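User: For my dataset I need records formatted as: sequence, then structure tokens, nothing else. Please produce one.
Assistant:
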Amino acid sequence: MQVEEELARLSAEKDMLLTIGVFDGVHLGHRYLISWLKKLAKQQDLVSGVITFRRHPQEVLSPQTKLPFLTNLAQRTNLLKNEGVEAVIVLSFTPELAQLSARQFVGLLKKYLRMRGAVIGSDFALGRNREGDTNTLRRLGQEMDFSVTIVPPILIDGEVVSSTAIRCALAEGDVKRAQNLIGRPFSLHGRVIPGAGRGIELGFPTANLDIDPQQALPAEGVYAGWVHIDTLVHPSMTNIGRRPTFGGRERSVEVYLPDYHSDLYGQELTIDIVERLRSEKKFDTPEELRKQIAEDVKQGKAILKNRGRN
């Protein structure tokens, strides 16, 4: 069994307090849960550990459903480590794992990770058909000698913080709401690839990013933000859309850096999306588009100057 083989390679040397989930986006709700995990682990002299999965369980349980991700595995793992947990454990969510009962899965965690307790959200469930809800886990905890701590969700402006709520905010182009729920600006990461050269023709050369097709994106439009290049941060304007003025059909992400003039081809860029300037629209002529881009840059730089770097 693959999950048992993976856990066997990660055998713990000390008893652990664990939390389990995808943690897509590592948002404020996740970070609140992890803060409880770390506090309780310290109090009980246990190792704090986060179990996450290479693939979202929904991809396995419902393959026809395409769920856009907020952070890829590498980003998610780094963010979790930055929260200060002592162990980030990555498992493969497979059909075989999905068929394990809650008792079987917990038994594996007890055997290989020396789990002494679980810290979970109020809507958490694991095991076949999500049978391992909070009540079931509490009962299993009494039988199998591990604690269960249930952490309530946090609300911001009356909304429960969740990955789903963040995806909805992005789909509406509401990057401010997304940032409030995440606790930091929403970021995109990709390698710079050659484009059609339209930006050069217009006087605003852009870097076209090779974005994973499963990456969640804000609604089509123009956004002000920051681009991280090596150790420096630069103001930027990012267009997400299909270039309707030029008859484009495929969605693309291209970024313009007003104060940067070196070659970016092949580099990996991270963009922090700060504020939406406008929706994407089709202009009658390239000259009209050029004038609008100039206005976008002016407006975006003013916004970034006033808000400062996040």
